Amino acid sequence: MTDLEVRGLDVRFRLGRRSPRYVRAVSDVDLDLRPGRLLALVGESGCGKSVLTEALTGLLPSTAEVRGSAHVVRRSGAELDPAIGDLDLLDADERTLRERVRGRLIGLVGQSAGSYLTPTRTVGAQLRETVQHLGSGVDVGELAERVQLPTAALDLYPHELSGGTAQRVGLAAALAGDPPVLLADEPTAGLDRPLVDHTMDLLAATAHEGRAVLVITHDLRAARRAADDLAVMYASRLLETGPVADVLADPWHSYTAGLLAALPGEGFTPIPGHPPELSALPDGCPFRPRSPAHAQTCTDDPRLVAFGDRAVGCVAS
Amino acid sequence: MSLDGRTLTGGWRRGHAVVRDLDITVPRGRVVGVAGPSGCGKSTLVRMLALLHQPWSGHVAVDGATTPRVRFGAPASLRRRLGVVFQQPRAAADPRLTLDELVVEPLRAAGERDAGVLRDRTDDLAERVGLTRELRSRRPHEVSDGQLQRACVARALAPRPAYLLCDEMTAMLDASTTAALVSVIGREVERGLGVLTVSHDEPLLAAWSDEVVRPWHW
Question: ipTM of the assembly?
Fold first, then answer.
């Protein structure tokens, strides 16, 4: 059983070597990934969602300035696993990340997984190599079966795969090291609805086997279908978190409500205005300029305030 | 006046037609949705209607005018009436150009030289699709998919096309950006723009289109 506890995660990129200005991609984010649960992180494009996964896997460019902590806590029963101990991913050196974290502790599924595959080798050969490199001893046939990849697909080259099949190969590769934590960045972008549903169901199944799974998506319908928990991100901050059914049935933050009302079939009304530039974030609540009703009251610190198992970053909502 | 495909048949490999005997009409001022699963030939249809892919038989008529040639071989007067927005903005945008340059390029290509006109038109479009001044000076790798797709919509609308062909335009976009771009295009539809939108997202087609056609009967 492995938890991932992210506390006060802050990622900035300096605009130019001597520039005093920053792009704030992630601001003060607290997140808990729990074994057996799928957490969906939703938000508009460009809000910093992807940077968050890159920070957790040490894949940010060297220009990034990262603060906060991301502790991996592995428990067998109530005991801490000494092999992992109390590893802080944000503090780990490249060697630790390479040899112990990526693939082994954290599996990563990228957007359009097909583009990560070597074009000149078959799917099966690449999965076997991944398993061998990670030394997990996972059987490739079983791996394929688990993600419902047809055995025939193992003999195909990446360009022969459809989008949905490529995504399943990506998931199989991420599971090759049997990692207890799985991060998926937009795993359903560009897929049609039946394939979106299928991919999300597979991810939910991998979570319910006991993994802690984070799925980054802009697709609220996909989140509603498969997630246990929801985190809503806007302009580098989390604005609302909680069990997905509760949050979507009764959103507390006006931004979450706005996203729901923008769905075709549920109003199709865009949220007025535009997200702020991450290089010019306003003080206080970043959503305030788009929420006129709250303009006077929302000058406070937008930190999340917990109420039971939910939390919201806007006292006025 | 309409954009018409008549008995269009075509594909990419000999003997494997993905579009067969297809008739479609996109009237001005209307939004026609085309539904179908991944890989059924929706994008091929868009490319044929956009005069980017040669049909094996049948023809495309732009306001009644037909041409036997495609791409740069087709008369500019016809091509200029067609705007296209593709699914993957990153694959559709020259990485060397700023977003502003992306939007201006088709206007320049159409022969507009007046700097004031170019600036006014770009400002107006950027404002409507929601690109801030700072974003407009960035290059594709410095913006998100959603921001880049906003620029691609502005680019397609810049030369004031009569018809806009959207190939899974919103597949990479979040709900609010989708709704925002659809409403930007909606205002052009009120002014007479004909839209063909291809998607596998049924709720989106139901909310956006005046009619939905299913040429592939799934």
Answer: 0.81
